Amino acid sequence: MSRDPHPAEAGGVPRPRRRARIAGPWYHSPKAALSGLAVLIAWGLLLPGATPVGGGMSTLGSLSLFGYALFSIVGGIVFLSNRNLGRVLSSCAAVGLLLLWGWLFVRYSGADWSRLAYVFFNFEILGESGMKALAGGFMTTLEVGIIATLCAFWLGVFLTLVRFFENKVMTGFVKVYVDVFRALPTIVLVSLIHYGAPFIGIYLPLMVSGILTLTLNHSAFFSEILRSGVSAVGHGQLEAARSLGLGTFKTFRLIVFPQAFKTAMPPLTGQFVALLKETVICSVVGIPELLREALVVQSWTANPTPLIIATIGYLLLLVPLTRLSRYLEVRMSTVRQAC
Known about the structure:
mainly alpha; 13 helices; AA_ABC_transptr_permease_3TM; cell membrane; His/Glu/Gln/Arg/opine family amino ABC transporter, permease, 3-TM region
């Protein structure tokens, strides 16, 4: 006689497997957990007797490190009935371990940290004139980036509109334009515009040369991004617009472009970030943007601290935009799935 199926398996429904009592984001089996604890215990026993560069470590310090590491591993592997609490403990343990590893590197690397601070983080050596020059370079970077972004975006919109009219001659011109300026490196293009334009009787100010370079280069990318957004608009909507008597321009302005812009928002934001990063290329022709001013101040002080400040400035400017791009990408993906 065959055995009666388990109640959970009645009707052909498979019985769910029970979760292990020990689980976590790092270790998923008791053997791995025990191995990790064994390594920690060995480390805790060996660390007080180690002879690091720069002197020994106190017993209290080694016990503190061992205790925290033990807490980090145990907090990650012990089964917790409250899943949210488990995530919080795991996050705290991960952050703490990163800080712990950083402290160990600082303590035992043997680096001359006072010398490092004097060379790379000597803000006093800049003086008021150096800080003003760097602040002016930051504002110039913002000015060039914002103006070039607006010009490149609207030129890209115009190129997309020209393609939408489906005129063979104009569409061919736009394709050549996009291919050429997408293929040209920005540093080559800015050199050609700044140094080559005077030979044909065109004299451009430094700022105009940089803005024109970024506009020509990135408008080609904006055009391609918007074209992909236009392609995502359903053909039936275009037919409906024509049946209502809307012309080509009104169809593009009222129906196609709003939907294409919404679809292309995440890659457009990423292109904005790429354009702002490429403002550093304007320093090649002497535009006093942030990198150029940092190099000038470095030559005054014979100290690389201005480059560190420039790095911090670029991070403050670009990291929020990068996160915004990621947020928009996730949000648009969620909206599309909901629809």
